[in-house]
């Protein structure tokens, strides 16, 4: 999931002919003043913190300014802001329009129907989650046929538009659809889509690009998101690695077993911190890499829970033993292992040689690792 900042989303919308306020993104108060001087941004204007979190309007991250000086200090304020944990590094500065009505339109993927869905509401400018169901119109769109006249007409009816604004709407919906398909988006949202006289303008843009399609759009893959430095390293090595707040490390294979392991730890009062999914890895080198990465996260204890299917228990054990030997002494941690399945006996024997016992029962193993993490004996 590559979530784009508003201004990047708007750059995409612009390419698909969606009307936008005039403006530019700035990274300093000086740049903002310069944008006013060169008339890139007309006054009065709006300054919007470019963070990925929503609710900026309510949260004071969207502000108005009427003079260049006022804009300068507003931009300075926004750049000093930390909004819902995100540092503000960029501010979008745009002309301030007088809004007559705020609508909601979006296209996203309805996974249960396996179809894109076109969503519209007359109640825009607020989070769609807070709009009652009866005020939200949904139409499913077949990817082969795309948007049809009836889709556009129904949205116009939902929004209460006809004449010139309805024609403007049709163009916007087409642009949104083309952007959704061509950019491999999971979501293209305009909230609010503002009515300004006879025209419609996209005041906000939320675009999420499908992760698995970023190879087709390398420009989006290069945008840093909220990965931790270790998660970034893991991604480069092709290891599924997620950092949470707890102190217990989990190494498992397969999403199902990983989730079940987290549940067991929770049940015994443990707090899973890092989890790492070896997937179908059957390469001792990969296991070693994964283990060293885990050591870098400094867990209080680690639970290795492996089911040997495609992955064989002995290769995992081999990688683990090699890894333990190379973990620096200040990065050592208590380890509880549970390996079951293919070549289980060989794996257990290898671990035993390295002084690690495998606890076959999941609950018992879970309890042992929670105790180890809280300083108890293994
Ligand atoms: P969000 O709260 O993070 O979704 O940020 P938005 O970009 O949706 O902006 C929040 C609100 O600011 C909008 O719903 C508008 O009411 C208001 N707003 C944004 N741009 C303008 C503008 O050009 N003119 C006016 N009057 N209001 C604006
Ligand atoms: Mn919005």
Descriptive tags:
Dna Ligase, domain 1, Rossmann fold, binds guanosine-5'-diphosphate, alpha+beta, binds manganese (II) ion, 378 residues, D-amino Acid Aminotransferase, Chain A, domain 1
Quote the average pLDDT: 91
Give the topology string: H per helix, E per strand: EHEHEEHEEEEEEHHEEEHHEEHEHEHEHH
Classify the helix fraction into a percent range.
Answer: 25-40%
Q: Which class of secondary structure composition applies to the elements?
A: alpha+beta
Provide the list of bound ligands, each named once.
guanosine-5'-diphosphate, manganese (II) ion
Predict the CATH topology of the largest domain.
Rossmann fold
Q: Write down the overall geometry.
A: elongated
Gyration radius, to the nearest Å? 26 Å
The major beta sheet can be summarized as: 7 strands, antiparallel
Q: Number of DSSP strands?
A: 18
Summarize this, please?
The protein has twelve helices and 18 strands.
């Amino acid at each position: 999931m590559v979530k784009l900042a508003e201004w990047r989303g708007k750059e995409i919308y612009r390419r698909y002919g969606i009307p936008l306020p005039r403006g530019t993104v700035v990274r300093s108060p000086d740049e903002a003043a310069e944008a006013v001087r060169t008339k890139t941004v007309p006054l009065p204007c709006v300054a919007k913190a470019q963070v990925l979190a929503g609710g900026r309007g309510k949260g004071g991250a969207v502000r108005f300014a009427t003079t260049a000086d006022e804009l300068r200090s507003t931009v300075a304020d926004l750049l000093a802001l930390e909004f819902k944990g995100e540092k503000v590094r960029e501010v979008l500065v745009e002309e301030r329009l007088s809004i007559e009505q705020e609508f909601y339109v979006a296209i996203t993927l309805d996974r249960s129907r396996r179809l894109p869905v076109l969503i519209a509401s007359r109640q825009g400018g607020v989070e769609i989650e807070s709009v009652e169901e009866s005020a939200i119109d949904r139409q499913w769109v077949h990817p082969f046929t795309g948007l049809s006249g009836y889709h556009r007409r129904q949205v116009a009816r939902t929004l209460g538009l006809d004449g010139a604004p309805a024609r403007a709407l049709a163009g916007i919906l087409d642009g949104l659809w083309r952007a959704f398909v061509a950019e491999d988006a999971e979501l293209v949202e305009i909230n609010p889509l503002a009515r300004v006289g006879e025209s419609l303008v996209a005041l906000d843009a939320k675009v999420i690009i499908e992760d698995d399609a970023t190879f087709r759009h390398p420009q989006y893959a290069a945008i840093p998101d909220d990965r931790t430095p270790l998660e970034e390293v893991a991604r480069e090595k092709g290891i599924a690695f997620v950092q949470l707040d707890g102190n217990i490390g989990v190494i498992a294979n397969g999403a199902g077993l990983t989730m079940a392991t987290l549940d067991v730890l929770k049940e015994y009062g443990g707090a899973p911190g890092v989890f790492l999914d070896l997937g179908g890895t059957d390469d001792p080198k990969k296991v070693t890499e994964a283990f060293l990465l885990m050591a870098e996260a400094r867990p209080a204890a680690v639970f290795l829970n492996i089911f040997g299917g495609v992955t064989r228990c002995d290769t995992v054990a081999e990688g683990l033993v090699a890894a333990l030997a190379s973990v620096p002494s200040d990065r050592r941690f208590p380890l509880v292992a549970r390996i079951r399945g293919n070549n289980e006996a060989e794996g257990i024997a290898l671990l035993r040689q390295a002084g690690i016992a495998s606890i076959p029962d999941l609950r018992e193993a879970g309890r042992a690792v929670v105790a180890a993490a809280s300083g108890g004996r293994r």
